[in-house]
Amino acid sequence: MSISLIRSRRRLIHRNSYNSPHYRKNKKLLSTSQAERAQRNRDKKRAKLDKLKNKNKPKAKKRPKRSKMPYRFKYYQFQDYKFKGELEELERIE
């Protein structure tokens, strides 16, 4: 049985006493005093501001890695070297 079916069945059985999750959440929020809610909102606002402030903070510069010569480049350089050697041999022969 899917979870939604179980929930709807529970809702039907306990029709008089069942409250939706939203209702429960709102009830909980209403049970907190005005001062507590105000403080919670201030905290939320402060968190949002801190997040924004941190977003614009200069990031620590990472040291660049010593660049390694790419394999491909090395390979072609080596081929060039071989090719030059062959050319020199040909010139010597001629």
The level of helicity is over 70%
Helix count equals 4
Q: Which structural class fits the helix and strand makeup? A: mainly alpha
- State the distance separating the first and last CA atoms: 90 Å
Largest sheet geometry: none
What gyration radius follows from the Cα positions, in whole Å? Answer: 36 Å
* Run of helices and strands: HHHH
- So what's the overall shape? elongated
Parts with pLDDT < 50 across at least 5 consecutive residues = none
Assess the beta-strand content as a share of residues: under 5%
> Would you count the extended β strands for me?
0
Mean model confidence by pLDDT: 76
What report would you give on this structure?
This protein is mostly helical. The chain is 71% helix and 0% strand. It is elongated, with a radius of gyration of 36 Å.
List keywords for this structure.
94 residues; mainly alpha; 0% strand; elongated
Gist?
The protein has helices at residues 3-13, 21-31, 34-55, 71-93.
SSE inventory with pairings:
Elements: H1 3-13, H2 21-31, H3 34-55, H4 71-93
